[in-house]
Amino acid sequence: MTPGQVVGTTHGPVRGTAAAGVLAFLGVPYAAPPVGELRFRPPAPPRAWAEPRDCTAHGPTAPQAPPEGPVSALLPHVSIPGADHLNLNVWTADTAGSRPVMVFVHGGSFTSGAGSIPTYDGSRFARDGVVLVTVNYRLGADGFLWLGAGTANLGLLDQVAALEWVRDNIASFGGDPSNVTVFGESAGAMSVCTLLAMPAASGLFRRAIAQSGAARCVLSADTAARIGRSLCELLGVEPSREAVAAVPTSRLLSAQVQLALDVAGSSDPLRWGEDAARNIMPFEPVVDGHVLPVAPEQALADGASADVDLMIGTNADEGNLFFVPTGITAHADEAALAHVARSRCYPRPVVDAYRAAHPTASPGELISELMTGEFYRAPALQAALSHRGSYMYEFAWRSPAFDGRMGACHALELPFVFDTLDGPGYGALLGEAPPQAVADAMHRAWIAFATTGDPGWPAYDTTTRAAMRFDTASTQLTDYR
Q1: Helix, strand, coil distribution of the chain in percent, nearest 5
Q2: What is the pLDDT of residue 341?
Q3: Mean pLDDT, residues 98-119 taken together
Q4: Which of 185, 284, 297, 318 is catalytic?
Q5: Which value, in Å, is the radius of gyration of the alpha carbons in the chain?
Q6: Model pTM score
Q7: Which of 111, 207, 269, 288 could connect to 277 by a Cys-Cys bridge, CB 3.0–4.6 Å?
Q8: Quick one: average pLDDT of 167-187?
C-alpha cells in the first residue's frame, strides 16, 4: 500500500492508503470515545482535528470477551484495544463521482465482532462501483444494558450516528448520500430490521439487506431490566449504570459471558422472560417506547419504512454452526430435544411439524432444524410479507467441513457476499476450492440491489413466493418455503 490522498470530513481531514486502484480510510472516528462521562450516554461528536489524521490502519474495536469454544475457532475474530472504538472504515475507487453506498453492520450476538474483520474488506465492492463502509458500535452491557433509567439502545444509536456521518461526509469519498444501503448479518441483520422501526434512523438509508437475522430479536423493557439486574447481581453491585461503570472491563466481560451461558442454559422461561428465552441472547435491542417505540415486527406490519427497499434471507442450515462442532447434533437425545423445545417456547405442534417434515432426522438434527426454521427463517419470511415488495433469498452451498455435515451453516455466506473467498479466517469452513461462481452471483446481486433496488429476481409475495437460491447452480424459486 502507498499513502493515499487526504479527504476532508466534518470533523477534520483524514489520510488513507491506496492499493490496486482502491482507496481505504480506516479507523475514522464518527463519535467521541464512549468513556468517562460519555459512557452509557448517547454518542457525542468527536473532537475536531486540524491536521490530516492518519487513517491507514484499523482503529480500536469495542470491548468484548475473547472467543472460546469450537464454534469460535471456525470464524475470524479481531480485537484491537483502545477507547476510540466508535469508528468506521471506508473503501472507494475514487473520491470523485457519486456512487451507491453500502454500510455494513457486523454480527456477533450483540456482544462481539468488528467492522475490521478481514472478511468484511470492502475492496471488491469498491472495485465494482460501490463505496463500502463498515462500522463498530458498542456491544454487550455498554451498548444494550437497560435498568429502567437513562437512554436505551446505545449500540443502535451508535449505528444511527455512523449513518449520519455517512449522510454528511460520504460525498467527499465519491458516494451518493441519497443512495445508501444498510446491510448486516446475524445481530447486524437484526440491527438493520430494528433501524427500520426507529424514528432516529428515518431518512438515513434508502435500502436495507438483512442476512440471517430479522425483526423478532428484541426484548421488552421489563425483560431487559430483569437481565440487567441479574448482571448486577453477578457483579455484586447496585443495579445502576454508575455501579456497572466502576467495574473493571475484564470483570464485566466475564460476567457478560456467564450471563449469556445462564440465559442459554435455562429451562425456565419464567426466569428470564419468554423473549429472552426464545432469542437466547441477554443483550438485544430494547423496546423502550422512545428510541424503539414498538417492536420491529409490529412496526413493519404497521408500514414503518415502507419507502425503504428490503432484501432479506437466510442460510439453508443456519443451526448447524452451533450444533455440529459442539457434538449436539450427533449426541442429543429425545430429552435434549424436549429441553430445547421447552426452554425456547416451541409448542408441541411445532416440534411435531418439524418431525413430520424430517422423518429420518435424529433428535440433534431436529434441534438444528428448529433453530434454523424458527429463529431465522420464519421471522425472515414474516418480515418479507409485512414489508411489501421485499426480495427473498436463500444461501444453500454446503461447506465441506465436518465431512459435509455443516451444510449451509450460519455466517457461511459472508465471504461470498464480500467476494473475499481468498481472505483469511474462513478456510476451515470453505475448504480448498469454494465456488467463485457463487461469490460472483451473490456479490453481483447485492450490488444490483444497492444500485437499483432490484437484485435480479421477482419480489416475494403470497402469490408467487419467489426467491433466489444461491448454490453451485443458483436457481430462481417459486412457492419458496
Answers
A1: 40, 15, 45
A2: 86
A3: 97
A4: 318
A5: 21
A6: 0.97
A7: 269
A8: 98
Integer Cα distance of 296 and 443 in angstroms:
27
- The DSSP string of 183-229 is EEETHHHHHHHHHTT-GGGTTS-SEEEEES--S---EEHHHHHHHHH
Q: Domain limits at 231?
A: 220-279
Of 74, 76, 79, 48, the residue nearest 63 (C-alpha): 79
Report DSSP letters for 376-411, one per residue.
IIHHHHHHHHHSTT-EEEEE-PPB-GGGGTTBS-TT
Question: At 245, which amino acid appears?
Answer: A
Alpha carbon of residue 313 to chain centroid: 13
Active site residue 399: no
For residue 390, indicate whether it is catalytic. Answer: no
Per-residue pLDDT at 3? 64
pLDDT digits (tens, 9 = 90+) for 180-233: 999 999 999 999 999 999 999 999 999 999 999 999 999 999 999 999 999 999
The residue annotated as part of the active site, out of 11, 387, 410, 443, is 410
Judge whether 213 lies within some domain.
Answer: no
Give residue 326's Cα distance to chain centre: 23
Q: Which uninterrupted H or E stretch holds 299?
A: helix 296-301
Secondary structure element (H or E) that encloses residue 90, with its range: strand 87-92
Residue carrying the nine cell digits 471506508: 90
CB count in 10 Å sphere of residue 392 = 28
Closest CA to 158 of 301, 29, 7, 276: 29
Q: What is the pLDDT of residues 294-305, one digit of tens each?
A: 999 999 999 999
Q: What is the pLDDT of residue 280?
A: 87
Catalytic residue among 112, 116, 123, 186: 186
The answer to the question of residue 433 being in a domain is no
Residue 249 lies in a domain: yes
Domain-embedded: residue 477:
no
417: cell is 457476499
Active site residue 318: yes
Smallest CA-to-CA distance from 145 within 37, 82, 219, 249 is with 219
Q: H helices then E strands: how many in the chain?
A: 20, 15
186 Cβ neighbours under 8 A, 6+ residues apart: 107, 108, 109, 211, 212, 213, 410, 411
Instruction: Please count the other Cβ atoms lying within 10 Å of the Cβ belonging to residue 342.
Output: 15
Nearest to 67 by CA among 302, 411, 362, 305: 411
Choose among 412, 434, 409, 440: nearest CA to 421.
Answer: 434
What's the rounded Cα separation, in Å, for the pair 327 and 50? 55
